[in-house]
Amino acid sequence: MDEGTLTIRDAQVELMNERNVSLYGLSTMNACLKTFLSQPVPLHASQDTKTRIYAFGLITMAKFIIKLPADILEEELPKMKQTLVEVITLVLLSF
Q1: Which residue, 5, 23, 38, 49, could crosslink 45 as a Cys pair with Cβ 3.0–4.6 Å?
Q2: Domain carrying residue 12
Q3: Which pTM was predicted?
Q4: Total number of domains constituting the chain
Q5: Contact of 83 with 60, CB cutoff 8 Å
């Protein structure tokens, strides 16, 4: 990912966290990653590209997670467990 993409991601996450919509951001990113996981690698992309997108999504989710209170995370993380395990496994297998 280029520096501009990362800067935009970080700015969007920070804005959502400032407006107290971290839970919405986390839920949305979880849904996006779930959908992305279910899709085959496009013909014009490599598996490496897909792995980088997973990593991008994981970092984004982590930025939301660290802003949420523990009691909310206790409820939300089990809902995201399957997605997180799948994405982390795919990223680790690609190294």
Answers
A1: 49
A2: 3-93
A3: 0.78
A4: 1
A5: no
Phi-psi region of 20 (alpha: psi -120 to 50; beta: other; left: phi over 0): left
CA pair distance 50, 35, nearest whole angstrom: 13
User: How far from chain centre, in Å, is Cα 64?
Assistant: 9
Q: Any idea which residue has 């014009």 for tokens?
A: 44
- Could you give the angle at which helices 47-65 and 3-18 cross, rounded to 10 degrees? 30
Contact 84, 34 (CB under 8 A): no
Contacts 24+ apart (CB under 8 A), 1-4: 1/52, 1/56
Distances (CA, A) of 33 to 2, 59, 76: 20, 12, 15
Radius of gyration of the chain (CA): 14
Residue type, 63: K
pLDDT digits (tens, 9 = 90+) for 18-56: 888 889 889 998 998 889 888 887 788 887 888 888 888
